[in-house]
Amino acid sequence: DTGDMIAIQKVSILPHMTTLQLSDQLLKAGIECLLKNLPLYLKGQLSLIPQPQKGANYAKKLEKSEGLLD
Predict the structure, then answer these.
(1) What b-and-e string marks burial along 29-64, b requiring 16 or more CB atoms within 10 Å of the CB?
(2) How would residue 22 be classed by pLDDT, with cut points 50, 70 and 90?
């Protein structure tokens, strides 16, 4: 996805964090970001942020046959 962003929310990932702890942290950060920015976006009060093209990757479209298991 290379579309514009509505907001950026940074979180720290510590070396000792478990998947569950990181998931919980990301959930809380996402809720906070959504509650803060969605009302502003719906009112047209936010400027969209272009994503940097550097580091962007494109994947080819998968064919239905590629989803078959051997």
Answers:
(1) eeeeeeeebeeeeeeeeeeeeeeeeeeeeeeeeeee
(2) very high
